[in-house]
Amino acid sequence: MRLGELHALDKEVAERELLRCCGSTQWAREMAASRPFDSAETMAQTGDTIWSSLERVDWLEAFAAHPKIGERSASSWAAAEQAGTGNASVDVRDRLAASNRDYEARFGYIFIVCATGKSAGEMLALLDGRLTNHPDEELHIAAEEQRKITRLRLAKLLDAPLVSRL
């Protein structure tokens, strides 16, 4: 899709396309209403601004749209992002699953990390390290990771080069 094509979509279809980038209904609604964008970078910056203005419930909705790290996904984007877990040993996959359960029990939502380019071992180390965070701090870290994921996906949506400020 090109930027002009996104602009030409009716509001509901644009929202549906944008939901592929970020699972927050409010974010997708505000992004669709913010069209047209001058450039892919302007669109990404608008996405960042909207994301930072949202409430906790919106962030949690976006987090819930992701598969857990190490789980298979029907989304080709999510599968590609988590490619680093594909060749992980059984031990690392089992430890990821256990740490995912611990994380969700502690914080009430799944572990969110911008997984692109990270190995399973790196993701496991990040997950285990973040388990000790204060819940308020962790929510903001997870929200920042979601912002990074959203930027990558906006670029994928537009078949554009990666946008800056990851």
What would the keywords be for this entry?
mainly alpha, 166 residues, 2 domains, 0% strand, 64% helix, UraD-like, globular
Question: What is this structure's SSE topology?
Answer:
Blueprint (H helix, E strand, L loop, with lengths): L2 H6 L2 H9 L5 H10 L5 H14 L2 H9 L11 H6 L8 H18 L12 H11 L4 H23 L9
How would you characterize the overall build of this protein?
- The protein is mainly α.
- It folds into two domains: 1-65 and 147-166, Oxo-4-hydroxy-4-carboxy-5-ureidoimidazoline decarboxylase (UraD-like, Orthogonal Bundle); 66-132, Oxo-4-hydroxy-4-carboxy-5-ureidoimidazoline decarboxylase (UraD-like, Orthogonal Bundle), CATH 1.10.3330.
- It has nine helices and no strands.
- The chain has helices at 3-8, 11-19, 25-34, 40-53, 56-64, 76-81, 90-107, 120-130, 135-157.
- α7 (90-107) packs parallel to α8.
Quick summary of this structure?
This protein has helices at 3-8, 11-19, 25-34, 40-53, 56-64, 76-81, 90-107, 120-130, 135-157.
